[in-house]
Design a protein that fits this description.
With 511 residues, the protein is of the alpha/beta class. Helix content is 47%, strand content 16%. It folds into 2 domains: 59-283, no CATH class; 298-507, P-loop containing nucleotide triphosphate hydrolases (Rossmann fold), CATH 3.40.50. Helix 15 (446-459) links the parallel strand 11 and strand 12. Helix 4 crosses helix 5 (77-103), helix 6 crosses helix 7 and helix 6 (113-146) packs across helix 8.
């Protein structure tokens, strides 16, 4: 068993759904990397957060798992802080253990029985520290979780597990056995070892069968073979020892102690792995908390989106705002909200309008909302309802910097390659976001080419949203299942000193 704060079950999802898209990057196109870096300048945490976003969840259970866990952290920030400290210390246990074990190596040779016994016991003393240490962390985690009225499945399950481990008799027995070696030396005990011999009287197995604290000063090594003085018939004292008995006893005791060391190491490793790595996963929630706090301070509404099955094919949001603009410090009054409502009947959406009227912002805000929703994060909207997407693909011409100014042929060729790549990768219930693709006027076939592409998207049940200046497309798609929209300007009279025009996206009126 291994706990994760990102996934409710063992996760095979290290496959990046964008891993083969070398031509561009969804997070780059949507400017998510820029926005998050502005909110959290710590590159290490930001990079990890973005790496999680690149693996969007496609299970309702997984998404809700994260939503509820982040909800607990938002409600109880001190809970996050305490768990972060605990798991940072927990993840250091292994490195501390390795360092101490390396220091247990003897400076000289271990060829003689006494040195080998001392080394083995020193290693065992180091190993014995960690079972008790790990149990103390179970207690710390349980005590922390017990202080808060947590509601997430993840933290409830963790609290229950820690309680069970604290009361686990087997684990407590291991801690007891470890304590026997932690503060003592071989000469402090009497050992009994069970030896197994083969038919030629060769030693094939030995196991420590009893250990007791020495009560009188006698040789612990002699006690191993029960080599004590026995009275003969004549009353004389007889000692049944040979010249190599002590060395043999030491080697046998060393072997028995080595098995104890190996067993404790294996148990400790298995138990330790249960919570190992959680401090790294908490970095995702740390950036998520910074994001939530930052947006809230700006007065921008933040909501937990309702997650719908992919078959419902819904993109719906009220008062959706753009994260990039928010990351630039613009407050709720400076960012124009948009309502979005695309259903299963809208196989595609075409959006037109003049430059600088908010088309790209609108497209970007939809993409960010979808990516964040499938990462279990809240979105910048008053309310939202989003279907799970099998994948999200983007092509933003305005985001590209790989073509020289005026090199329209190079740009067009590059765009064709990228669109061909998306066509090879796209699957049912994907979402494709296109911004000014094939916008060059040097190729009259641009409208026809993109029409064939978006028609193919419709046939494989993939929704697309396309911001374009290819106006011929609107005539070609009119009357079908494609939603036709444009930016409309309205006078913003809330500005007392300087009236401004604000642009919203609305359906094109026909007839």
């Amino acid at each position: 068993m291994k706990f994760s704060l990102l996934y409710p079950a063992p996760h095979e999802g290290d496959i990046d759904i964008y891993e083969e898209r070398e031509e561009n990057d969804v997070l780059y196109d949507l400017s998510i990397d820029r926005a998050i870096s502005a909110i959290c300048p710590d590159h290490r945490r930001t990079d990890y957060f973005l790496s999680v976003l690149r693996k969007p969840l496609v299970s309702h259970e997984d998404i809700v798992y994260r939503q509820h866990l982040l909800g607990d952290f938002i409600e109880y920030r001190e809970l996050y802080d305490e768990l972060k400290l605990i798991f940072m210390r927990y993840d250091k246990i292994k490195s501390d253990w390795v360092e101490l074990r390396s220091n247990a190596y003897p400076s000289g040779s271990t060829s003689n029985s006494e040195a080998l016994l001392d080394y083995t016991f020193s290693s065992l003393k180091v190993t014995a520290i960690f079972p008790h240490t790990i149990i103390s962390f179970f207690e710390a985690i349980y005590d922390t979780l017990e202080k808060f009225n947590i509601s997430s499945e993840a933290l409830k399950k963790m609290r229950e597990f820690c309680r069970d481990m604290i009361n686990n008799n087997s684990l407590n027995e291991i801690a007891y056995i470890s304590a026997l070696f932690q503060y003592h030396m071989p000469e402090d005990y009497d050992f009994s070892v069970l030896c197994v011999l083969d038919s030629t009287l060769r030693l094939v197995e030995c196991e420590l069968s009893d250990i007791s604290e020495k009560k009188k000063k006698n040789n612990a090594i002699m006690r191993l073979f029960d080599l004590k003085k026995k009275n003969g018939e004549d009353g004389s004292g007889v000692v049944s020892t040979g010249p190599d008995a002590v060395d043999n006893a030491r080697f046998i005791l060393t072997e028995a102690l080595y098995h104890i060391d190996a067993a404790l190491t294996a148990v400790t490793n298995n138990v330790y792995e249960i919570f190992y790595g959680l401090s790294r996963e908490l970095m995702f929630y740390e950036v998520a908390l910074k994001y939530a706090e930052y947006i809230t301070e700006l007065g921008i509404p933040l909501c937990v989106p309702a997650i719908r099955p992919c078959e419902d094919d819904i993109i719906s949001a009220r008062g959706l705002r753009d994260l990039l603009l928010a990351s630039q410090g613009k407050n709720v009054g400076e960012i124009i909200p948009n309502d979005v409502c695309f259903g299963s009947g809208d196989r595609g959406v075409l959006i037109r309008g003049n430059n600088n009227t908010g088309k790209t912002t609108y497209l970007r805000s939809i993409g960010i909302a979808q990516i964040f929703a499938q990462a279990g994060l809240p979105v910048c909207a008053e309310s939202a309802e989003l279907s799970i997407r099998s994948a999200v693909y983007t092509h933003f011409s305005s985001a590209e910097e790989d073509f020289k100014e005026g090199d329209t042929s190079g740009r067009f060729e590059g765009e064709v390659k990228q669109m061909a790549h998306i066509m090879n990768m796209v699957k049912p219930y994907s979402l494709v976001l296109l911004n000014e693709t094939f916008q060059t006027t040097a190729y009259a076939e641009g409208s026809v080419g993109i029409y064939n592409i978006i028609s193919a998207f419709g046939r494989i049940n993939t929704k697309y949203i396309f911001v374009t200046h290819l106006l011929k497309l609107f005539d070609m798609c009119a009357g079908g299942s494609v939603r036709l929209m444009e930016t409309m300007g309205t006078l913003d009279t809330t500005e007392t000193a300087d009236e401004k025009v604000k642009y919203v996206i609305s359906d094109i009126k026909t007839g």
